[in-house]
C-alpha cells in the first residue's frame, strides 16, 4: 500500500506532529510506503512528490510549520477567463502514475472541500483537520487551536500590567476571520473585560458604556479582545476600528495590539502534539481498514471520523449558548 500525504492552507503548530503520527504508524505498524507531496495540492499538479522514511520523520514532534510546505492551491476552483487547464485531470494522472493508493489531506475548511471533491472524483482520501481557528465542522477541536490560544493568552496576560500602569484601554486583535474561537478562549483565559466575536453582533455605544461603568466601579483600565473578523467601517482593521471608537466614545487613552502570525508559528503545546499524533494514527488506521472519504475528528475524548461529504462547505461557529459565553455574561464580561 502506497500513501501520499499533503498539507494545505494556512500552517499551524502540530502539522509536523501529525505527519509523524500518520507516517510512523504506516511504516512501523502496517508496513506501508509513504510519499510526501510538496506544497499542498500544487505538488499533485507539479508531480513534486518524494518518498518519506524514518530518517525524514526525526525531530518533527515539536517542530512548527510543515516539512512538506503548503499552498492555498484550489485545483477544483475555475477562474473566470483563465486558460482552461484541467487541474483535476492532472492530479488524477499524477496519482495514477505514482501508484498512490490513498491521499492523506491535512488542512482547514478549504482543504476539506478540495479533499471531498478529490474523493468524489474517485480517489481514496482520508483527511485530518488542522487550523488555529478551530472552525472545521465535525470535530470538537482541531490541533493548532490550543497552541494559538496559549500564545494569545500569554499576550493578554502581558497587556494587563502595562494597561494598569498607564490606566489605559488596551485592545488586542487575535486571528479568526469568521469564527471567534481564539478570541473567546484567550479572552476568557486572559481575563479580558470585553470580548468581541464575528458571530455576536455588538453596539459600539454599549462597549463605551461598559468601559465607563468599569471606571465607576474603581477599575481604571480595561482589556478588550477582538477577533480580526468583526465587522468594521471603512475597511479598517478590527483593533484600529475598536480602539478609535472607544477613544471617541469615552475619551480614554486607548492603544491597540495586533498579534498576527505569532499565533501560527513555533512549537505546538503538549495538548496539540498529542491530539495531532492521535489524529495522525487514526488516519492511518482508516486507510488500513479501507475506510476512505472520511475526516478524522475528536468527539469528546475519542478520536473518530466523519464523512467528508458532511464536512465540506460547513463552518463551526461560536453560538450564544456556548458555556464560556454564558459564564462570561454572568461574570459581567461584555460580548456586545
Ligand atoms: O489559519 C487561519 C488563519 O490564521 C486566519 O485566522 C487568518 O485570517 C488567515 O489564516 C490568514 O492566513 P494567510 O495570510 O496565510 O492567508
TrEMBL record:
Gene3D superfamilies per UniProt: 3.40.50.450, Phosphofructokinase domain (3.40.50.460)
Indicate whether Chloroplast appears among the record's keywords: no
Record keywords: Transcription included?
no
The chemistry this enzyme catalyses reads: beta-D-fructose 6-phosphate + ATP = beta-D-fructose 1,6-bisphosphate + ADP + H(+)
Q: Which InterPro entries match?
A: ATP_PFK (IPR022953), ATP_PFK_prok-type (IPR012003), Phosphofructokinase_dom (IPR000023), Phosphofructokinase_III (IPR012829), PKF_sf (IPR035966)
Where located?
Cytoplasm
Q: Which keywords label this protein?
A: ATP-binding, Cytoplasm, Glycolysis, Kinase, Magnesium, Metal-binding, Nucleotide-binding, Transferase
Documented EC number(s) = 2.7.1.11
Which principal EC class is assigned to this enzyme?
Answer: transferase
Q: Which cofactor does it need?
A: Mg(2+)
Where is substrate bound in this sequence? Answer: 131-133, 168, 175-177, 228, 255, 261-264
**Primary residence:** cytoplasm
Q: Name one GO cellular component term.
A: 6-phosphofructokinase complex
Q: Name one GO biological process term.
A: canonical glycolysis
Under which pathway is this protein filed? Carbohydrate degradation; glycolysis; D-glyceraldehyde 3-phosphate and glycerone phosphate from D-glucose: step 3/4
Residues involved in ATP binding: 10, 72-73, 108-111
Active site residues of this protein: 133
The annotated site for Important for substrate specificity falls at 110
Self-association and partners: Homodimer or homotetramer.
**Protein role:** Catalyzes the phosphorylation of D-fructose 6-phosphate to fructose 1,6-bisphosphate by ATP, the first committing step of glycolysis.
Q: State what protein this is by name.
A: ATP-dependent 6-phosphofructokinase
Source organism: Phocaeicola plebeius
Highest classification ranks of the organism: Bacteria, Pseudomonadati, Bacteroidota, Bacteroidia, Bacteroidales
